[in-house]
């Protein structure tokens, strides 16, 4: 097992990539704080994962709540070795059509949340002699898509912030990397199937976005996050690992 005696926080862990990552980390021997805005969701995940996981309801836009999340990991498990900044949300709109409050919220959740979680995690990571920060970016930082202006901007910021933090904190033996998912099946797409006129065509369209001819599963991204979090990637920092079935290569 690759995470024996490690303590991790995973945000956005109520479902999807975050929940899959928390589950994989537990399987690899870690103690995990399962954090999400949705308290009911994280409680259900923790119920499945057992005693090596604890739930934390957190709004990553709120510094006091983020501090409390870090303190919970340290007090309950004795320290912190890994934080996975996975909390995020999307939104439709161009810079012309988006309302300012929607823009601010997308930037706050996806980018400010990474800043706050990293800011308050770094002293705890340093106290353990170093550690790993893994941020969830997106393959769209390598190209753009229509009608997603705020999301593209936020995830581009995550990718750039990852590189900046890697330079700033290599002296602390803290590695900072990001993972860039493509289309990953989630509850969002399950809901979409009930709303589109032709569900089969919708699924086919998702698969066609990647040269591999399929969409990804949350476990595909969890495996990449595990690699970036564990000692096997000990010489990797400031990098972005794209996991999108080849979509960014087009």
TrEMBL record:
Coiled coil: none annotated. GO terms for molecular function: oxidoreductase activity. Keywords: Oxidoreductase. NCBIfam families: PRK06138.1, PRK07231.1. It comes from Rhizobium aethiopicum. InterPro entries: NAD(P)-bd_dom_sf, Sc_DH/Rdtase_CS, SDR_fam. Signal peptide: none annotated. Pfam families: adh_short_C2 (PF13561). Belongs to the short-chain dehydrogenases/reductases (SDR) family. This is NAD(P)-dependent dehydrogenase, short-chain alcohol dehydrogenase family.
